[in-house]
Design goal:
The chain is built from two helices and 20 strands. The chain is mostly beta strands. The protein has one domain. Strands 1, 2, 5, 6, 9, 10, 12, 13, 14, 15, 16, 19 and 20 form a 13-stranded antiparallel β-sheet that branches. It is globular.
Length: about 300
């Protein structure tokens, strides 16, 4: 998947899972609020006519673009079950539409942001009310964020995607965030990527992004990536709506063996491989059939 965040003035956006984010002005909790101030400086906010909320403790980033880069998603044609359609662009179009219409609002807050430190604490909020064009988001105070401590890097790359879990035709499409950048620890994370999809738990998830344009005052998180794995047993329980038809998540993974899934072409092409990964999602020695989703 790909995604971008924006720091709440509206910059141009993109979200791939490769993740990119631009910043918002300080996001708040409470009834409603806004700010025209620099989120990284903790500047004061000004009211938009509704009750002022509480500013969060650092630059706040909204995912402003989202794309599943790997795996490609295939669907059997209804009129010819022997033929398969690459439905990736249709699915990604739906994800991006949900972000652009503010139905999906994924937020990252860099708590107490300090570019001189080796680590950075982030708060992740899976949902918020972000009125289009208003320059603020409101978070339900009852919603507890996921907290993680990421590592800042001043040199080199923050990309830690294992190429063995990526279809070879897609690896070059992933973002490769370079220093100054940040990379998260490995952890599980539940995401609701659009209103048409149920929440999906991504295991062994990892996030990385590039501070931009200046790590001292990051207005965006760019070249972002998110990778996580969904075990077969979990994917078999997840259905989503595709053109009015319920579709099982595991069935769109080529080579999964699902009764409605597509077979891997026997044509010798580089991308003609199974998209099923064997991953130790339950700990060493417990490799299971899973699918790694990489987003930008």
């Amino acid at each position: 998947m790909r995604r971008e965040h924006e720091r709440w003035h509206e910059h141009d956006r993109r979200l791939d899972l490769d993740l990119d984010a631009s910043t918002s002005t300080p996001t708040t909790t409470g009834a409603a609020s806004t700010s025209g101030a620099d989120a990284s400086s903790g500047g004061s906010s000004e009211s938009t006519g509704s009750e002022l909320g509480l500013l969060l403790e650092g630059p706040s980033f909204r995912v402003s673009a989202l794309e599943i880069v790997d795996p490609p998603l295939y669907r059997k044609l209804k009129d010819d079950p022997e033929e398969c359609l690459d439905a990736s662009s249709l699915v990604n179009g739906g994800l991006m539409s949900s972000v652009e219409t503010y139905d999906t609002n994924l937020l990252l807050v860099a708590k107490g942001y300090d570019p001189t430190k080796d680590t950075q604490e982030f708060l992740f909020y899976p949902s918020a009310n972000c009125p289009p064009g208003e320059g603020y988001c409101v978070i339900n105070p009852a919603l507890l964020p996921t907290t993680f401590v990421a590592v800042n890097r001043d040199v080199g790359s923050c990309s830690e995607v294992d190429p063995m879990t990526i279809n070879p035709t897609n690896y070059g499409l992933l973002h490769m965030p370079q220093a100054p950048c940040v990379v998260s620890p490995t952890a599980s994370l539940e995401l609701k990527l659009s209103k048409d999809l149920p929440p999906i738990a991504f295991l062994l998830g990892k996030f990385a992004a590039q501070y931009s344009p200046d790590p001292e005052v990051p207005g965006r998180l760019e070249m972002a990536t998110l990778q996580g794995f969904v075990p077969e047993a979990n994917a078999m329980m997840i259905d989503y709506n595709f053109n009015g038809i319920p579709v099982n998540l595991w069935s769109v993974i080529r080579g999964s063996g699902h009764p409605e899934g597509c077979l891997v072409p026997v044509d010798g092409e580089p991308g003609s491989v199974s998209d099923v990964d064997m991953v130790d999602v339950d700990g060493p020695g417990w490799a299971s059939r899973s699918e790694g989703f990489s987003c930008t």
